[in-house]
């Protein structure tokens, strides 16, 4: 009996479940289509909500960034590569997820950034088989992009190496032909004009960069050192005259000063590099000129100078006026005679030329040597006058000798002191001392002043109260 009831109960539930399912199906079938779609949409929204917890889908352009960067670099579209690289970096910086796909893309992007940097650095590298036809302008693109990539230091180093190669190539084209002064002018002109252009290009490529600016100054000083070493070997030779040296050095200094317009002053360094060879050259010139003065003195007969004709006199007066001795006409006697010896006139020309050359070469560091040269050469001539005036051989010509001494001290030495002070800004103590030392030559019956040191007498007490 119990078994029969249990069986009837199971049959009832089967019929009930089957009836419920059929009723549900029939009910849905009777619903309008719009209601059925709404029902589907309702359940779909729940499914989408479940999927939102997953990582968002990455844009297609980002997935293709590594390949696109490879293409841009290979085709040398460096600007496009940089823009795409920055766009990818900006997107990845905002997305801090640790998804393996994003991590892989980030790694690939940085690898391409390194590749782009290496390609740009090769653009600036100097090699024997690479043409320098484009010059520094061809390097602007690579330098700009390297700066944007944060590689300013490497770009600066490569840029300066490129500048060195261009300078070396330009200077090799100058051939050592003709006069030394012409050669120095050509070499200096090429060097400093190129250096000026490079300074302008450098300021354009690396604005507001103190570290790079310091590197440029150091580099420019190094290049100037190379140039000066070359010029010293070519110019400072034993047979070189002080006049030629003065012209060469003045030319190079003037060319160097054009860099000051850009804020690069290498003049002090240039003068420092030339100081030692110039000091040696000035002292060598002093020895040669002193020997020349002594040689002429041995041939001096203390006779008035004969200018042969009025035309010769006129020409002579013009020459002396051109070198600053306008008062020479006061020494003219007769039609074509001059109340000075040929030795005095020759020395005057020589000394004024030496004075001009020394003043062109003078710097604060060379001033002592310049004073030494000017003083020793003038002293050598005055010692000749002094010896002749004291000699019994020329007693009858003493008045004439004194007349030459007056010209040397009052005209020539005064002119030299004036030129010196006008150029240097201070008087020359050495020349002033020479004036005092030989001023006795101008006086009749004068005696030479001695340089013996006098000692002050010991004061005697007038009373023994203090003893």
Characterization of this structure:
The protein is an all-alpha fold and 467 residues long. 70% of the residues lie in helices and 1% in strands. It has 17 helices and 3 strands. Strands 1-3-2 form a 3-stranded antiparallel β-sheet, with no helix packed on it. Residues 1-13, 15-54 and 451-467 have low confidence and may be disordered. Keywords: Exocytosis, Protein transport, Transport. Residues 60-266 form the Exocyst component Exo84 C-terminal domain. Belongs to the EXO84 family.
Would you spell out the secondary-structure blueprint of this structure?
Blueprint lengths: L1 H29 L2 H19 L8 H4 L1 H10 L3 H17 L5 H25 L15 H9 L3 H21 L7 H26 L4 H26 L6 H16 L9 H32 L6 E2 L3 H13 L9 E2 L3 E2 L3 H20 L5 H24 L7 H27 L4 H10 L29
Antiparallel strand pairs: 1-3, 2-3
Helix pairs in contact: 4-5, 4-6, 5-6, 6-7, 7-8, 8-9, 8-10, 9-10, 9-11, 10-12, 11-12, 11-14, 12-14, 12-15, 14-15, 14-16, 15-16, 15-17, 16-17
Q: Gist?
A:
Residues 60-266 form the Exocyst component Exo84 C-terminal domain. With 467 residues, the chain is an all-alpha fold. The protein contains 17 helices and three strands.
- Quote the average pLDDT: 83
Radius of gyration: 48 Å
CA distance, first residue to last residue = 167 Å
Range of helix content: over 70%
Uncertain spans, ≥5 residues at pLDDT below 50?
1-13, 15-54, 451-467
Q: Can you count the helices?
A: 17
Number of strands: 3
How are the strands ordered across the major sheet? Answer: 1-3-2
- Assembly type of the chains comes to single chain
The shape, in one word, is rod-shaped
Most strands sheet: 3 strands, antiparallel
Order of helices and strands: HHHHHHHHHHHHEHEEHHHH
Instruction: State the secondary-structure class.
Output: mainly alpha
Instruction: State which percent range the strand residues make up.
Output: under 5%
